[in-house]
Each structure stands twice: as structure tokens, then as C-alpha cells.
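Recap quiz, item 2
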Amino acid sequence: MEYVPAVARWLHFMAGVMWIGLLYYFNFVQVAALKAATADGTAAGITKHVAPRALLYFRWAAVVTWLAGAALLSDKFVDAFTLRHGMAGIGVGAWLGTIMLFNVWALIWPNQQKILGLKPATDEEKNKARRVAFLASRANVALSMPMLFFMAGGWSHRAIFGL
Amino acid sequence: MKNPLDSLWGTVISGLVLTVILYFVVKSILG
């Protein structure tokens, strides 16, 4: 079973790169691109062909990242989430990642389904959905910064924590 | 007051501020 942590870490990194990479794509590229595309009448290219595919990989990469992270924590899972036995750093990272996963599945995806017309919604519901999905996505960008700081905190972070 | 998450810079600065706050929280737990 000694190969499990290595495979879990590898999967955690690959899925995490896909998840956070697509999160940054949405926030740093697509929001502004969609605004410009709406102005010249080409938004359908993004909303019909790009966004649904990006969201598919985005939400499932989030699940794989979390599960692989949980497998990697293994018997330290409880210590991490209770911030005990020297696991406070990775534990805060794990909590932030868990909150971000919740945002993806409970706020971003259900509201994006309304925005993209995958689920029936009135114009008023779509406008509300746009705002909720936007803020949840932006919150995840902000949370990703400390999340990555603590997730990446191996030997390189010991000195700044005074250890 | 404007929501900082409405702009990319506001979002990035919020993330940095949160990182610093959590750094001190974790440091106090580990210390």
C-alpha cells in the first residue's frame, strides 16, 4: 500500500492544477471576454461551446482534487481538520479547499446551469444567479491564495513559522 | 462600500490579506 500516497499526491496535483487553472481562466479571462463578446454579439460562442466544457472539467477536477487530498492525508485526516499535532498548516489549506469545493457544487454549478440555460429560469432568476455565481467564483480566487500557501507549506515554510 | 470581489485587484488583495491573517493564526497554533 506504500504506493497509495505517491499516486494520491500525483493525482492531487494534476487535478488541482486543472481545477485552479480553470478557476483562474474563468476569473482572469472569461469574465472580461464574455463582456466584450456580448458587446459585439459573439457571446454564444463562449456560453454555448466553451463554458459548459470548462465547467465540466472544473467541477469534477474539484472532486478528484479533494478525494486525492483526503487519501493523501490518510490517517492524518482528522489531525489536519482539527488543526492538531503539528497539522495546522496543511489543515487550514484543507479547510480552505473544502470550502472552495462547497462553493463549486453548492453555489457556482447550480447557478451556472441557470445562466447557461441548462436549467429553466426566468430573467430575474438568471440575473440573481449571475451575481451569486460571480461572487462565489471570485471568493474562490481569494481563498485559493492562502489555500495554495498552506498546501505548499513543506520544509520551505518551516522557517517562516519559526519551527 | 464597494465589494472588493467586484474587481480582480480587490480579489487579489483580499486573498493576500487573508493569507497574512491565517499565517498568524497558524503560527500561533504551531508555536
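The interface with chain A takes residues 3, 5-6, 8, 11-12, 14-16, 18-19, 22-23, 25-27, 29-31 of chain B (CB under 8 Å).
The CA atoms of residues 24 and 31 of chain B lie 10 Å apart.
End of item.
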